[in-house]
């Protein structure tokens, strides 16, 4: 969700809400056709979603590195 501090004026149909992770005010937008809230793990602002994505990528890299080095031992 776009943060309200980055997008002060919302579009028609957008509603102010808070990010479930950081608590920042954000714009909750209508879901794309064919999606429901159950399709998403959490309602997050864009910044938190990117941070979680980076954390998951780092965890995958470290797990792969660990497996590769375990085999060499």
Structural description of this entry:
- By secondary structure, the protein is of the alpha+beta class.
- The protein has one domain.
- The chain is 37% helix and 11% strand.
- The protein contains one helix and two strands.
- The protein has one helix at residues 46-72, and strands spanning 15-18, 25-28.
- A two-stranded antiparallel sheet has the order 1-2.
- The radius of gyration is 17 Å and the shape is elongated.
- The N and C termini lie far apart (45 Å).
- The model has no long low-confidence stretch (mean pLDDT 86).
Layout of strands and helices, then pairs:
Elements: E1 15-18, E2 25-28, H1 46-72
Antiparallel strand pairs: 1-2
Give average pLDDT, whole number. Answer: 86
Q: First CA to last CA: what distance?
A: 45 Å
Total count of strands = 2
Helix amount, in percent? 25-40%
Shape: elongated
Lateral strand order in the biggest sheet = 1-2
Give the SSE order as H and E letters.
EEH
Number of H/I helices: 1
- From the helix content, strand content and strand pairing, which structural class follows? alpha+beta
Strand percent estimate = 5-15%
Task: List low-confidence stretches.
Answer: none
How much is the radius of gyration in Å? 17 Å
- Count of folded domains: 1
The main sheet comes to: 2 strands, antiparallel
